[in-house]
Amino acid sequence: MLSATKLALGSIAVSLLVLGLKYWAYVLTGSVGLYSDALESIVNVATAITSYMAVRLSAKPPDANHPYGHDKAEYLSAVLVGVLIVLAALSILHEAYYDLQNPKLLSAPLQGLSVNGLATLFNAAWCFMLIRFGRSMRSTALESDGKHLMTDVVTSVGVLLGVAAAMATGWAILDPAVAVLVALNILWMGWDVMRKSIGGLMDEAVPEEDMDRIRETISSNAEGAIEAHDVRTRRAGRMTFIDFHLVVPGEMSVEESHDICDRIEDALKRAVKGAKVTIHVEPEAKAKHPGGVPVV
């Protein structure tokens, strides 16, 4: 099975290949759209390297200075990827502005379209793989890198359409005009990547559907306890941290309450991939029901 590190390393190789093909397409045509597409691919190389470094760092085990691990390194990487996506979009807008002032006819458009189309196919296949494995491995860096490559695929399709339309109609202005539209879409996608990554850095709770599953798992495996309350969650890369208070009868022994905690913890780890569970046991005088998680 592919590891996160190998996938991140593969992204560097694929990004370099795609960059070379897209720049070749620009040289063949002189198209500002294809030039902007190649420019965006330079960012792909930088983000692939950044993601590789983040994946390696996040895989390091906890140490004295980082007792909770290094998983948040992936969020920092994803924020940087988002910033680079926005910068790429602004660069495209910059080049398109000048070409809108002075549209020019393209040279060798068919050859350029063919080379760029080949690069786009490579990118599309690889970005779908990154997103799929990134989600299954709970790797924010890989998933954000895949989404970044998806913006590159969108860019390339838009540019290909613009160049083809300019070639078919003779309207040279279509080339930079389509580049502007694609750049605006990239800006939005870059913001989305940054927003989600910042949420992870701010210890955002899991989605409501995941929280419902966590509450149900606690409730259905807490036989012998009275209730659970103050359930809290946060995510850090591939890890999901869950902590809550478990109320047990006052006469229950430490060993009995510990057995209940072990049962709940095992169930949560099966229900939530990468779960790290902390349970604080309390006597029945601390019960808050209703408002907690009732025991079935």
From TrEMBL:
Q: What is its main location?
A: membrane
Which top-rank group of organisms is this from? Bacteria
**Residue intervals of the Cation efflux protein cytoplasmic domain:** 207-284
Gene Ontology CC, one term: plasma membrane
Domain annotation Cation efflux protein transmembrane: ranges: 11-202
- Where in the cell? Cell membrane
- Give the record's keywords alphabetically: Cell membrane, Membrane, Transmembrane, Transmembrane helix, Transport
SUPFAM superfamilies from the UniProt entry: Cation efflux protein cytoplasmic domain-like (SSF160240), Cation efflux protein transmembrane domain-like (SSF161111)
Which family is it part of?
Belongs to the cation diffusion facilitator (CDF) transporter (TC 2.A.4) family.
Spell out the protein name for this chain.
Protein p34
Organism of provenance: Methyloligella halotolerans
